[in-house]
């Protein structure tokens, strides 16, 4: 859906429009082949756009989007909880089935990769910078 079309909606709030634009831009660059790809794309979206989502106060819009995905059977309720913990606290479980949480460090260059240690993230950022030269 084009951004002009989104802007033309009268019955949608500015925050909803802002969220839809962010999500659509992300999905255009990160193609979804099958429904089973959605959880990884959502996880990547939240990890890479967390600061922008929080800065724009789009928590409710993020939650509503996740609830829609849940309603359509694309994510589980457990995964929804994990995503909101990622959004709220910047943490993610090593496994969805346990309570072993870890803070993630997102690459500041590509914003597409997240790492458990600052050192890993810093090394990846160097690689991204060098690849861009």
What does this 3D model show about the protein?
The protein is mostly helical and 133 residues long. Helices cover 61% and strands 8% of the residues. The protein is built from six helices and four strands. The strands form two sheets. The protein has a two-stranded antiparallel ribbon. It has a two-stranded antiparallel sheet with strand order 3-4. The longest helix is centred in the middle third of the chain and has 18 residues, at 38-55. The mean pLDDT is 85.
Provide the fold topology.
Blueprint lengths: L2 H6 L5 H16 L8 H18 L3 H13 L5 H13 L1 E3 L7 E3 L1 E2 L7 E2 L2 H15 L1
Antiparallel strand pairs: 1-2, 3-4
Structure in a nutshell:
The protein contains six helices and four strands, in the order αααααββββα. The chain is mainly alpha-helical. Helix 2 packs across helix 3, helix 3 runs parallel beside helix 5 (77-89) and helix 4 (59-71) runs antiparallel to helix 5 (77-89).
Q: Mind describing the biggest β-sheet?
A: 2 strands, antiparallel
Q: What is the SS-derived class?
A: mainly alpha
* Mean pLDDT metric: 85
Query: Shape from CA axes?
Result: globular
Q: Would you list the SSEs in sequence order as H and E?
A: HHHHHEEEEH
Task: Assign a percent range to the helix content.
Answer: 55-70%
Radius of gyration using CA atoms only: 16 Å
Termini, distance in Å?
Answer: 33 Å
Provide the low-confidence segments as ranges.
none
Q: Which band does the percent of strand residues land in?
A: 5-15%
The total of helices stands at 6
Query: Total number of β-strand segments?
Result: 4
The strand line-up of the biggest sheet is 1-2
């Amino acid at each position: 859906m084009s951004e002009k079309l989104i802007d033309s909606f009268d019955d949608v709030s500015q925050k909803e429009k802002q969220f839809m634009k962010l999500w659509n831009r992300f999905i255009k660059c990160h193609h979804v082949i099958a429904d089973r790809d959605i959880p990884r794309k959502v996880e990547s979206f939240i990890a890479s756009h967390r600061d922008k989502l929080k800065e724009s106060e789009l928590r409710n819009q993020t939650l509503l989007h996740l609830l829609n995905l849940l309603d359509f059977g694309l994510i589980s309720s457990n995964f929804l909880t994990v995503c909101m913990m990622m959004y709220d606290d910047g943490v993610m479980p090593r496994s969805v089935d346990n309570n072993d949480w870890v803070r993630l460090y997102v690459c500041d260059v590509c914003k597409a990769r997240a790492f458990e240690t600052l050192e890993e993230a810093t090394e990846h950022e160097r690689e991204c910078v060098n690849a861009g030269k």
